[in-house]
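Retro notes
What went well: the complex prediction finally ran end to end.
Inputs used:
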Amino acid sequence: MPVVVVESPAKAKTINKYLGPDYTVLASYGHVRDLPAKDGSVDPDDGFGMKWEVAAESRKHVKAIVEALKSDDHLILATDPDREGEAISWHLQEALASSLKKKTVSRVTFNAITKQAVTEAMKTPRQVDKPLVEAYLARRALDYLVGFTLSPVLWRKLPGAKSAGRVQSVCLRLIVERELEIEAFRAREYWTVTAVLKTPRGQEFEARLTVLGGKKLDKFDIATAAAAELAVRAVTSRDLKVASVEAKPASRNPYAPFMTSTLQQEASRKFGMGAKQCMSAAQRLYEAGLITYMRTDGIDMAPEAVMAARDEITRRFGPTYVPESPRMYKNKAKNAQEAHECIRPTDMAAAPEKLRFAEKDQANLYDLIWKRTIASQMSAARMERTVVDLSSADGQVVLRANGQVVLFDGFLKVYDEGRDDDGDEEGRLPQIMTGEAVEKQAVTPAQSFTQPPPRYTEATLVKRMEELGIGRPSTYASVLTTIVEREYARKDKNRLIPEDKGRLVTAFLTNYFRRYVEYDFTADLETELDDVSAGDRDYKDVLTRFWRDFSAAIAETADLRIGEVLEKIDDFLAPHLYPLREDGSDPRICQTCGTGRLHLKTSRSGGAFIGCGNYPECRYTRPISGGEDGAAGATGCWARIRMASRSACARAGSGPMSSAARRARQIRSPTARACRRAGHPTV
DNA sequence: CAGTGAGCGAGCTTCCGCTTGACTT
């Protein structure tokens, strides 16, 4: 009777069901062994020798396998079909070595947990893939060496700093650099002119000015209130006729089913769930047998599941909602391992409304997963997009109206991904024909400002990390926790804002360890690991090359004194620390004593602040973020925009206005709403 | 949350990725 080992107990239960009583299926509960979290677990001077240890938590699970092997003589390693899964099989083999004498060991893999996939896999056993394991060894050793060498450097050189790593430091850098972009951003004003028009049959619709003075308008062509007034006059003083009506068919395909990152993004957008909260609700659903595995970067679906989804769609909506052939999805991300299929309901017929859930989060998440999965196998939505141009006789003025009508809803019947932007919600345009004259109800100018990039949310950051190939489905949520725990960044209204400490760490790393916080470092490493797993390169060669450069960078920082480090960071962060003053004076000169040069300093507790160089004669200090009072820092800039936008609304709001025009005003002046959404400081 | 500034050096911290634990009332 063979012993089969998989990674998770819920999976073991399912597979046991498929294989029957002739097999004992057990779970390894993860990696089983790891490098002890202390110095010397990897020795670069001794061929990168690694010291492994069975974690206390894993002992009982290893013991259970040893017990089972006493009566059986065949061990089948069925861990996940990716690099880490192969590593787990190898760890098991090593950890169980003394129990495996005179026993046979084989390795099998399956991508989907279906009866067919599992029984098929059992027919093609192989041995543990050594090159793939070696790619893991390189990955594991490198992460250890980066983390356990760099962190102590930070402790010594940057008071208050706590940790650094291949993933967390790049993730932090993303947050910090986004904040610098926001601070450097200067809003630019522009105006749009919208008219509410009426057809000869009395139906209202909206159109926007696109040509003025015979010239096509660009975004910033109407830059001031005065110019907008002139544009409004140009429109009101002319009669408008329909110059053209163009209708074009368009179609929209459904989204791919969920993987971990997209599930986290949608759970955040639709329910405001954090990454951790989302994963814990998903774990419950998985343990209850309701959904497939929730830590995955695969978006393909088992053929059985595709057929079940098509049946369910036919049953509920009729055959017109089922495309001729099943839709196939594949993750195009470079480092995708696709060890598991997508996140989907295990039973398509188990519709959300038929189930009862212990908690709201689980109900919400299951509903989302079921709908997204079903939609992913439905027909495309078909629409008709209409563009109507209205022109003055002299061709000086053209207004354009856009309309969209859904002809066939297709997958939209079940699932519509909410939009992040307010977007222009386009409706149906009234019947109208070329040559017809329209009547003007209202012509309204609206002031707008270009928007700075928004701060990251957990969800958008996970999306960015995934694009860069940084982190894995099992770590997205915990990386964010680490960054917040270290007080490198904080979460405010779901937005990530860097703390001063986080800025200092990023400044330090980009100065002294640039290569290791570059956005493509992990992607390049993955390419090298691919070579290792293909058997084209020795893993120790990868580590040797890495260590040669990395240890040199470490050595260069050895003699640095804290003062020098701070000076360098002071220069690096200067644009943020010393924003231009409105009176034009040198932002680096202390305004209290009038002569001292301002410097970045750190206190005993590790906090950073700005102090006057004339200390102790001049005792001026201030925090490093927020800038000086009255300086043209980010806060001041935002305050001015808010004021301007408020007066624009007041202006536009004077006089009677149709409901359509009022709607138009809301859409065209998104400043305040967009600011709140992006978590920018409110005044 | 306000206040914060040297250098010495005890003893502490730290990585990424895989997986679920769970004392009490």
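What we learned: The two ends of chain A are 71 Å apart (CA to CA).
What to try next: split runs per interface for comparison.
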